[in-house]
C-alpha cells in the first residue's frame, strides 16, 4: 500500500500541530511509530485515505460513528442545521426534544444538561457530586479513562496508559490526592477504600462496562456491591457512559445491568459524530446546577442545534428494529473468525466481546481488570495493527482500544477482515 501523501501531510502537520495530531491517541507511538494514515473521506463502513487506499473501519472515531460515515439521515439533519443556523446562544426546541429522547431511553435521568464533550460531562458530574455532598474525594477504577481533566488523569487508561505515562505532568499533587484508584472487579479493594475514606467520598466514578482497557464486563454482583456501599456511605454513584450509552442497546449500560446511578455522563454516539457531551440524573442532585443551584457549568456551544439535530437523527436510526441484534450477530462472526484464525497459526489471543464491540488481547489470560489487560503483548499488537492496515483494515492504534462495528458493516466486510487477520497471524507466527 502506498502512503506517500499521508507521510507528506503528517510531516507538514508535525511542523504546525503539536505531535502532528489533535489527540495523542491518534499518533502511532503505541504501535511502533510512523506516520498515521491521513483520511480524506468516509462512506458507510469504509474510509479512504489521501493516497486512495480503502479501509474497513473498526475505529469508528473511537466510538461515535456507530451508524458509519455519511449516513443520509444524519447528513440531512446536519445540512438542515447548517441552513437554519448552527448556533444561537438561546434555548431551542431541539434541546428539549433531545433531552426528552434521552430521558425516555434512560430512566435514571430526571433532568439533563448538554455539554460539548465527554470530558466536560464527566468533569461536571464530579463537581456536582462534590457540591451536593460537601465532600471532595472521589474513587475511580484503575485503567478507566474519563477524559482529560485533572482529577481523572490519575492512573488513567486509554491514551495515557498506552503512552506509558498514566499521570499527566501539570496535574497538581493536591488534586491527585483527592482521587483514590482501585482495581475494577475487585470487591475487597473497593471495600478497603470505602472503610478508610468512606465518609469523605463525594462520588464513585464508574465505567459500568469498561471500554478503555478493552471491553470488560463487570463480574456478577460487583457493581451492585459498589452501588450498595456507596449508598450506605452517602457517596454519589456516577456512571460514565460516554462509550456505553446506545452502544449495546437503545439506552445505557445501566439498564442492561439493572443499575440506577445517581448521575450519568454521556457523549460520543449521542452526537451522531458531532461534538457533544451530556450529563443527567436525579432531580434533587441536578438542581444543584446553576442557574438553579450553586454548582457552575456553562458552554457557548452547549446544546448547539447542529449537535442536537445530529444526535436526534442518530438515535432515530438506532431505534429501528433489529439494529443491535445485527451488530451482535456480526460481532459473533468476527469473534469466532479471529479466534479460529489465531489458533490456526498458533497465536495466543483472548477476546472480550460485548455485542458489536470487542477487544483482542495478545495474552492467554482472561481480562477482567487493567493489570490483566496490561499483560497483552504491546509489541505483538503493534505488528498486528500494521499488518491489518496493510490489508485495508483500520483498527485503533492501541492495544487498549476496542474494535467497534457499525450499522454499515456487512457480513462480507467481516469475512474480509477475518481473512486479513489470518494473514496477519500467519506473519506474526513466523
Ligand atoms: N469517558 C469515557 C469512558 C471515554 O472513553 C472518553 C473518551 O474516550 C471520555 C470520557 C472523554 O470524552 P471526550 O473525548 O469526548 O472528551
UniProtKB/TrEMBL annotation:
<dbReference type="InterPro" id="IPR015424">
    <property type="entry name" value="PyrdxlP-dep_Trfase"/>
</dbReference>
<dbReference type="InterPro" id="IPR005814">
    <property type="entry name" value="Aminotrans_3"/>
</dbReference>
<feature type="modified residue" description="N6-(pyridoxal phosphate)lysine">
    <location>
        <position position="268"/>
    </location>
</feature>
<keyword id="KW-0808">Transferase</keyword>
<dbReference type="GO" id="GO:0005737">
    <property type="term" value="C:cytoplasm"/>
</dbReference>
<comment type="pathway">
    <text>Porphyrin-containing compound metabolism; protoporphyrin-IX biosynthesis; 5-aminolevulinate from L-glutamyl-tRNA(Glu): step 2/2.</text>
</comment>
<keyword id="KW-0627">Porphyrin biosynthesis</keyword>
<dbReference type="InterPro" id="IPR015421">
    <property type="entry name" value="PyrdxlP-dep_Trfase_major"/>
</dbReference>
<dbReference type="InterPro" id="IPR004639">
    <property type="entry name" value="4pyrrol_synth_GluAld_NH2Trfase"/>
</dbReference>
<keyword id="KW-0663">Pyridoxal phosphate</keyword>
<dbReference type="InterPro" id="IPR015422">
    <property type="entry name" value="PyrdxlP-dep_Trfase_small"/>
</dbReference>
<comment type="subunit">
    <text>Homodimer.</text>
</comment>
<dbReference type="GO" id="GO:0030170">
    <property type="term" value="F:pyridoxal phosphate binding"/>
</dbReference>
<protein>
    <recommendedName>
        <fullName>Glutamate-1-semialdehyde 2,1-aminomutase</fullName>
        <ecNumber>5.4.3.8</ecNumber>
    </recommendedName>
</protein>
<dbReference type="GO" id="GO:0008483">
    <property type="term" value="F:transaminase activity"/>
</dbReference>
<dbReference type="GO" id="GO:0006782">
    <property type="term" value="P:protoporphyrinogen IX biosynthetic process"/>
</dbReference>
<keyword id="KW-0413">Isomerase</keyword>
<keyword id="KW-0032">Aminotransferase</keyword>
<keyword id="KW-0963">Cytoplasm</keyword>
<comment type="similarity">
    <text>Belongs to the class-III pyridoxal-phosphate-dependent aminotransferase family. HemL subfamily.</text>
</comment>
<dbReference type="Pfam" id="PF00202">
    <property type="entry name" value="Aminotran_3"/>
</dbReference>
<dbReference type="GO" id="GO:0042286">
    <property type="term" value="F:glutamate-1-semialdehyde 2,1-aminomutase activity"/>
</dbReference>
Amino acid at each position: 500500500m502506498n502512503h506517500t501523501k499521508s507521510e507528506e501531510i503528517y510531516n507538514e502537520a508535525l511542523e504546525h500541530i503539536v505531535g502532528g495530531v489533535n489527540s495523542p491517541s491518534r499518533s502511532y507511538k503505541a504501535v511502533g511509530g510512523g506516520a498515521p494514515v491521513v483520511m480524506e473521506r468516509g462512506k458507510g463502513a469504509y474510509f479512504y485515505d489521501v493516497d486512495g487506499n480503502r479501509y474497513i473501519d473498526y475505529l469508528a472515531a473511537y466510538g461515535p460513528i456507530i451508524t458509519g460515515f455519511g449516513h443520509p439521515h444524519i447528513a440531512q439533519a446536519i445540512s438542515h442545521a447548517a441552513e437554519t443556523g448552527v448556533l444561537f446562544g438561546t434555548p431551542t426546541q431541539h434541546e428539549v426534544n433531545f433531552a426528552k429522547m434521552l430521558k425516555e431511553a434512560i430512566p435514571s435521568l430526571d433532568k439533563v444538561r448538554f455539554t460539548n464533550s465527554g470530558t466536560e460531562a464527566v468533569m461536571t458530574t464530579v463537581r456536582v457530586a462534590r457540591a451536593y455532598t460537601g465532600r471532595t474525594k472521589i474513587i475511580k477504577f484503575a485503567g478507566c479513562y474519563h477524559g482529560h481533566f485533572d482529577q481523572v488523569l490519575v492512573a488513567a487508561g486509554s491514551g495515557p496508559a498506552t503512552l506509558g505515562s498514566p499521570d499527566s505532568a501539570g496535574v497538581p499533587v493536591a488534586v491527585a490526592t483527592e482521587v483514590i484508584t482501585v482495581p475494577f472487579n475487585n470487591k475487597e479493594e473497593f471495600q478497603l477504600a470505602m472503610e478508610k475514606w468512606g465518609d469523605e467520598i463525594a462520588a464513585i466514578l464508574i465505567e459500568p462496562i469498561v471500554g478503555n482497557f478493552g471491553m470488560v464486563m463487570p463480574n456478577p454482583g460487583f457493581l451492585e456491591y459498589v452501588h450498595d456501599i456507596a449508598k450506605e456511605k452517602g457517596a454519589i454513584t456516577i456512571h460514565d457512559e460516554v462509550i456505553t450509552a446506545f452502544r449495546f442497546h437503545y439506552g445505557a449500560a445501566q439498564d442492561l445491568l439493572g443499575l440506577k446511578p445517581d448521575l450519568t455522563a454521556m457523549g460520543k454516539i449521542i452526537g451522531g459524530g458531532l461534538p457533544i457531551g451530556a450529563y443527567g440524573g436525579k432531580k434533587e442532585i441536578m438542581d444543584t446546577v446553576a442557574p438553579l443551584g450553586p454548582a457552575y457549568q456553562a458552554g457557548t456551544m452547549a446544546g448547539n442545534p447542529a449537535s442536537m439535530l445530529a444526535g436526534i437523527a442518530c438515535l432515530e436510526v438506532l431505534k429501528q428494529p433489529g439494529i443491535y441484534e445485527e451488530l451482535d450477530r456480526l460481532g459473533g462472526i468476527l469473534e469466532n473468525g479471529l479466534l479460529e484464525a489465531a489458533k490456526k497459526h498458533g497465536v495466543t489471543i483472548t477476546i472480550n466481546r460485548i455485542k458489536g464491540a470487542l477487544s483482542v488481547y495478545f495474552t492467554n489470560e482472561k481480562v477482567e481488570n487493567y493489570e490483566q489487560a496490561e499483560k497483552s503483548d504491546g509489541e505483538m499488537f503493534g505488528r498486528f495493527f500494521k499488518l491489518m492496515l496493510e490489508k485495508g483494515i483500520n483498527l485503533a492504534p492501541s492495544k487498549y482500544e476496542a474494535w467497534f462495528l457499525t450499522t454499515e458493516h456487512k457480513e462480507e466486510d467481516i469475512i474480509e477482515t477475518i481473512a486479513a487477520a489470518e494473514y496477519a497471524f500467519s506473519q506474526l507466527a513466523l
